[in-house]
Amino acid sequence: IHLMFASYNNTKRAAISTDNGNTWSADKNFVWPKFSIDNGPGAYFAVSEAPEGGYRAFVSFGEKGLASAHSADGSVWTAEPGIRLNPSAFGLQKITAGNPIKLKDGTYRMYVGDDSDYFHKCASDSTITTNIYSAISKDQLNWTVEPGIRIGSNVTNLCKLHPQAFVDTNGKFGVVYTSQPNPSVMIGPNSPF
Fold this sequence. Notes:
Structural class: mainly beta
Distance between the termini: 29 Å
């Protein structure tokens, strides 16, 4: 099992477990790239299996958008050229990445959080709310924004960020995300996803 995380200064780190998560050790082979988007490591990221094999990480770069990196083994990562999604495509200032899930028709859906500057006021101003949006792709490299809001005030009027999608054992979709104020992890309902 591989575990990747970003430390307080956005340095990416990884650990490996060979006993189903009971014990962990540092991944000594871990290499995280710098991205041409700003010659840095990026901030939040989410990882998914890549359709061509290996893994793809989707990395948030604030108002510059989402970039991606590919790894054959989960340890050594290479930045991929270009931007996967731009915040302006959603009408937003900044976005955060989610992990794509494969749909029954073979395409991928990624849920995207609104990380615009006003998000940081969520803890102090209860009138501010954010939504979770989505985009669709056939190859995880070229994305098309889907119209509408996936998780909005119809689910909760709290600010919502860092969506991570999953498919349960019955084939139902769910999205785990954080909320503000009163930080918590919430699981969105199966519908309207």
